[in-house]
Write a structure and sequence with these properties.
This protein is of the alpha+beta class. Helices cover 45% and strands 22% of the residues. It has ten helices and 13 strands. The strands form three sheets. It has a six-stranded antiparallel β-sheet. Strands 8-9-7-12-13 form a five-stranded mixed β-sheet, sandwiched between helices. It has a two-stranded antiparallel ribbon with strand order 10-11. Strand 2 and strand 3 form a beta hairpin. The chain is elongated and about 75 Å long. The N and C termini lie far apart (75 Å). The relative contact order is 0.09.
């Protein structure tokens, strides 16, 4: 039989994976993000078994960041690529499954990973995944068919359909969760996203038993924002909020968390940063906003911002830490605005 898999062995593999899936999906753990990661991994392995592939990966189309990345990859680490690139990008753009059994002569195949790892790709199947509305949100990729001369566009896509369908449902649920943690206007994370990140990222840094690590934050708001709305209208106010958010996004470190706290207020969390360094970062952002111009229709709108900075005390609740920063923000507003207050 060579490398082909018997029906009994395949059924046993499917049964084992689906049992794990059932257990995982029956959990009451409220950490849905981690649950989804496990489900992606199991579904990816199920699909790999169904088409008898050496490797497999499930890709999410991150439309907010214009990228594609692997939520689960059996046989490889996480990979991120720009949207519209590679065979995955092509399958999503053309809304159809793609098979290549001669990838090195395919202009859409990116061989960089193979060059780095020494892996040899002989065949690829990419199947786009849609949500319940029929909109494509991700893709399943299988690599190196272990039996026969390569993937079959008809038979292997048919085999993958069940795993792909469940992957689509899970990814759609994941997307709803992600959307609930983002502010639609600015596309920054919102208050729900802040609390999620605090418990999963920043709190763990603060309680790291191996070494002492600082985390600081500042809260800030736009000075006289009501005047912007009253003078130019709420659409102009929305443009100012997007302008501020974009400046914060591009002028912060990748590891920093930038959040719209509500209204014209924003919070920035800076891991591995003491409060003096956080105040310096806030000052850079203050100057950036002060020296920038928001262009809206035929208007050029300039605004300033006030900041309150604190180092996060792990002995206090995050609400109490924010209250400390908020009191400093209030002091900045009371003493003239357009300034950073640390002490």
């Amino acid at each position: 039989m060579g490398s082909s898999v018997s029906s009994d062995v395949l059924l046993e593999q499917i049964f084992s994976i689906t049992q794990d899936l059932y257990k995982e999906m029956s959990k009451t753990d409220d950490d849905a993000e981690n649950d989804h990661n496990t489900i992606y991994r199991l579904l990816t392995d199920l699909g790999r078994s169904l088409v008898n592939a050496d490797r497999a990966s499930f890709w999410k189309w991150d439309k907010r960041n214009h990228s594609l990345w692997t939520t689960a990859a059996v046989g490889a680490g996480r990979i991120t690529i720009p949207e519209g690139t590679g065979l995955v990008g092509k399958a999503l753009a053309e809304k159809r499954a793609i098979v290549t059994n001669d990838p090195y002569n395919d202009p859409d195949f990116n061989s960089d990973v193979d060059k780095k790892t020494g892996y040899v790709t002989r065949s690829i199947l990419v199947m786009p995944i849609s949500d319940c509305k029929g909109e494509f949100i991700g893709a399943y990729q299988a690599i190196n068919k272990l039996d026969g001369d390569g993937f079959d566009l008809k038979e292997d896509v048919k085999r993958l359909s069940l795993a792909a369908f469940i992957c689509g449902i899970t990814l759609e649920s994941d997307s709803f969760l992600d959307d609930s943690r983002h502010d639609r206007l600015t596309e920054l994370k919102n208050r729900m996203g802040f609390y999620s990140d605090y418990s999963k990222i920043y709190e763990k840094i603060l309680t790291d038993s191996t070494c002492v690590r600082n985390v600081s934050l500042f809260i800030c708001d736009i000075d006289f924002f009501k005047k912007v709305n009253d003078t130019y209208g709420h659409n102009a106010g929305d443009a100012v909020l997007r302008h501020v958010a974009e400046n914060f996004r591009i002028n912060s470190r990748i590891c920093d968390g930038v959040y719209r706290w509500g209204g014209e207020e924003f919070i920035v969390v800076l891991p591995d940063t003491d409060e003096e360094q956080a105040a310096e970062a806030a000052e850079r952002l203050r100057l950036c906003i002060m020296n920038s111009v928001c262009h809206f229709e035929n208007l050029d709108i300039k605004v300033t911002m006030s900041f309150g900075v604190t180092g996060i005390d792990p002995a206090k609740s995050i609400e109490d830490n924010i209250k400390v920063a908020d009191e400093k923000l209030y002091r900045a507003k009371e003493t003239g605005r357009n300034r950073v207050i640390l002490y």
